[in-house]
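Format notes (please read before filing issues)

Several people have asked whether sequences and structure tokens are stored in separate files. They are not. Every record keeps both together, in the order shown below: the sequence lines, then the token lines. Line labels are part of the format and must not be stripped during preprocessing.
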Amino acid sequence: MNKKLIVFILISIFVFPMVVFADEGPKPSIDIKIKNLNTTNYLVDLFVYDEDGTAYASEMNYNGEGLSKKQINKLYELNFDGWISEATRWNHYLLFAQCAGNSKYENSFSYFGTPKKYKIVIINNDTGDIKISNEIIRNDFNSYVIIDYDTMNVVNENNNYLKTIMNLIIALILTVGFELLIAYILKIKNYKIITVTNVITNLVLQILLVIFTNNYLLSFIVGELIIILTELIVYLCNLKNITKFKIILYTLTANAITIVITFLLK
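Then the structure lines:
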């Protein structure tokens, strides 16, 4: 096997997980801080409205840590007049979740399935009490919510701008680095054009994802398709010393791997 191909495969094993975060850019999220809860033995989840019951019947699959199968099933089976657990239905909603109690009383939820409208459910495992909030509407990309356990009212809700900015910067660095790595392996030495093109396309994509947060998944797919077309046109017009076949191979490979891993990696 070609030595460079072997090197490419080995590097990919370590780089690709970062690429999932990179080209995806900042992800919508909801971070919850619970006040006045006197135990760390609790569960918290986002409940969303299931209009026709199809989501409730979907497969139980929790994409997080710290919960037993019994606890996952407990959240999964709850149904408050159509409001059901989102975190225990990964295949249906695509939501990374931290539902297990902790000493900081902070829990995070993010990814494509971050809901626009939701209710917060908290289960006190010591007492068996189950509490649910009123409907909450997320207006911010990275939402930070403080909820009072006693009343289940939202005390404060604001946008975590620092989280959004930091994620954007990291994503940009990783994306450009990955594109340059592929260019190096394929012996495409026009690093300046590749860097400038990727900085612009990645920034545009990330800004669009933040603006159109209510349709994040659709924005991501359409944005990626536009990026592929844009980069292909730029490279075909400016990389004069590279064959069209190699340019097309480079553009499609770099972007296709990112998209595939984004959807497959949990």
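For reference, the curators noted about this record: Residues 162 and 249 are 37 Å apart (CA to CA). Confidence is low (pLDDT under 50) at residues 4-24, 261-266.
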